[in-house]
Amino acid sequence: MDIKAQQTKLANNLGKLLRDNFGKGPEAVHVTIYEPYVVIYVSGFVSPMEQVLLN
Q1: What is the pTM of this model?
Q2: Environment class of 55 (CB within 10 Å of its CB; exposed 0-12, middle 13-18, buried 19+)
Q3: Rounded distance, CA 55 to CA 7, Å?
Q4: Nearest CA-CA partner of 18 in 38, 43, 39, 52
Q5: What's the pLDDT at 1?
Q6: Alpha carbon distances (Å) from 30 to 10, 14, 18, 27
Q7: DSSP states of 7-51 as a string?
Q8: Which one, of 40, 46, 13, 10, lies nearest residue 27 by Cα?
């Protein structure tokens, strides 16, 4: 399996995992695999009320 397919599969699975466990998924999940690192960027997961509490 090539790197692009692995990145896409990991992003899809992570989005589904978050959706199943928290009731809502993120707006976007970006995965970059560059040996020996895996970078995962999750955007739009925190609701507006949670953002107020974090601030």
Answers
A1: 0.81
A2: exposed
A3: 32
A4: 43
A5: 81
A6: 9, 10, 14, 10
A7: HHHHHHHHHHHHHHHHSS--SEEEEEEETTEEEEEEES-S-HHHH
A8: 46
pLDDT in tens, 7-48: 999 999 999 999 999 888 899 999 999 999 999 999 998 888
Scanning the structure block, which residue is given the tokens 């976007």?
28
Q: Which residue has the tokens 């009320």?
A: 49
pLDDT of residue 50: 87
Q: Position of tokens 């974090």? A: 54
With cut-offs at 50, 70 and 90, classify the pLDDT of residue 3: very high
